[in-house]
Specification:
By secondary structure, this protein is an alpha+beta fold. It is built from four helices and seven strands; from the N terminus they run E-H-H-E-E-E-E-E-H-E-H. It has one domain. It has a four-stranded mixed beta sheet, with helices on one face. Strands 4-5-7 form a three-stranded antiparallel beta sheet, with helices on one face. The longest helix is centred in the middle third of the chain and has 33 residues. It binds zinc ion. The site of zinc ion has 7 residues, from strand 1 and helix 3.
C-alpha cells in the first residue's frame, strides 16, 4: 500500500458561557420554548450518549445581582474531535476509495452545580434553577453541533481515485476541513446565541431560555 500514515487531529472547541445580569424575571418566561423539563430531558439523552467529563463548581455570591461579576467563568465546553484519514479500499476498477473518519473522543463540560446567595427566597431558587438548566442547554448545544456534524461527515461520499497519492492528499484535506468546519459551526452558534445570553434566537433543538439570571424583583 502506497498510501502513507494516518492523520490524527485534535480539535479544541472552547466555549465560555457567560453569566448573569439583573434582567427582570418576566422576560424569560415569555420566550421559553417548550418546558424546561422537556429541554433538560432532551439534553440528558444527548449527553448520556457521549463521553462527557463534568467539572461542577458551586457558585456563591453575596447577592443575586452580583453574579455578573463572574462573567465568563460560569460554564465552558471543550469538545475533542479526532479526524482520521484511513487507508483506502480498492474497488473492482482498481480505484482507491475511502473517506475521513471523525470521532468525538472526549467532551469536557464545566458547569455550576448550584448558584447560591444568602437568604434565597423560593423565587430566587427558581430563578437559579432556570439559569442552571439554561446554561447546561447552551453547552449541550455545542455537543449537539459536534455530534450532528460528525454523523454527517462520516456519511459523506467517498473519495474515489486511481491515484493513491491523490487519495491521500484529498482525504487528509477533507479530514482537516471537517474539523475546521465543526469549529466554525461552534463559533457561529456562539455568535447567534451570544454564548447563551440570547439562546432564544436559536431554532429547533437548540432553542432555549436565555442564560442570564433573571433576579426576582424585591
Ligand atoms: Zn457557547
Amino acid at each position: 500500500m502506497i498510501v502513507r500514515g494516518a492523520l490524527t487531529t485534535l480539535l479544541l472547541v472552547i466555549c465560555g458561557t457567560t453569566g448573569a445580569t439583573n434582567a427582570p424575571a418576566a422576560t424569560s418566561a415569555t420566550q421559553e420554548p417548550g418546558s424546561l423539563a422537556e429541554i433538560t430531558a432532551s439534553d440528558n439523552a444527548l449527553l448520556h450518549a457521549q463521553p462527557v467529563v463534568y467539572e461542577l463548581h458551586e457558585v456563591r455570591q453575596p447577592r443575586c445581582d452580583a453574579i455578573d461579576v463572574r462573567e465568563g467563568e460560569l460554564a465552558e465546553t471543550i469538545v475533542d474531535v479526532r479526524s482520521h484519514a484511513p487507508f483506502p479500499d480498492v474497488d473492482k476498477q482498481l480505484r482507491y476509495f475511502g473517506r475521513p473518519e471523525f470521532t468525538i473522543v472526549r467532551i469536557h463540560m464545566r458547569l455550576p452545580s448550584r448558584i447560591l446567595w444568602p437568604a434565597m427566597s423560593d423565587a430566587d431558587r427558581a430563578a437559579a434553577a432556570v439559569t442552571l438548566a439554561a446554561l447546561r442547554h447552551h453547552e449541550a448545544g455545542h455537543v449537539r453541533i459536534a455530534t450532528d456534524e460528525v454523523a454527517r461527515l462520516n456519511a459523506a461520499p467517498f473519495t474515489v481515485t486511481p491515484d493513491p497519492e491523490a487519495y491521500r492528499v484529498t482525504v487528509v484535506r477533507r479530514a482537516n476541513a471537517g474539523v475546521e468546519r465543526i469549529a466554525r459551526l461552534q463559533e457561529a452558534y456562539d455568535t447567534l446565541t451570544d454564548h447563551g445570553r440570547r439562546q432564544d434566537r436559536a431554532s429547533g433543538e437548540f432553542r432555549g431560555p436565555r442564560t442570564e439570571l433573571a433576579c426576582p424583583r424585591r
